């Protein structure tokens, strides 16, 4: 009888680490909203960013100045700088940074702006650079010249 009870107790202990691991995995997969007033507020049913599974997924940022809500006027370089400042603010609020970005997607109104956008982009990112796609789209919100979204690792 004692031997049977000992085997039952041991088998219960062997299941315990699995249950703890399952609970930890569930808590790591829960998503958490990222919200900051240092970047433009979401104007629809989306979040500035979402934290899940050790990553932060940032919504596309356009060149809105957070303090005024006005568009950053000027050339593609000026708009790209504002977009990347907004993206950095969302990442900072999430506990990450531009240095932690692993994937970015650049949406351009005109692919002829690629070289000018790329020059500014290189001011904000360091090697190893994130994986990236850049595409020309038919239209962007508020008819801006550039929008950038990103995925980053949490620090």
Could you give the order of strands across the largest sheet?
1-2-3-6-4-5
Instruction: Count helical runs.
Output: 3
CATH homology group of the largest domain: RutC-like
How many domains? The number is: 2
Annotated CATH architecture of the largest domain? 2-Layer Sandwich
Unreliable stretches: none
Provide the succession of SSEs: HEEEHEHEE
Please name the CATH topology of the largest domain.
60s Ribosomal Protein L30, Chain: A
- The assigned structural class equals alpha+beta
- The gyration radius over C-alpha positions equals 22 Å
| Sheet with the most strands, sense and barrel status | 6 strands, mixed
Measured by DSSP, the beta-strand proportion falls in 15-25%
**Could you say which overall geometry the principal axes of the C-alpha atoms support?**
elongated
Number of strands: 6
Broad CATH class of the largest domain: Alpha Beta
- In whole angstroms, the N-to-C terminal distance is 52 Å
Helix content: 25-40%
The overall average pLDDT, rounded, is: 89
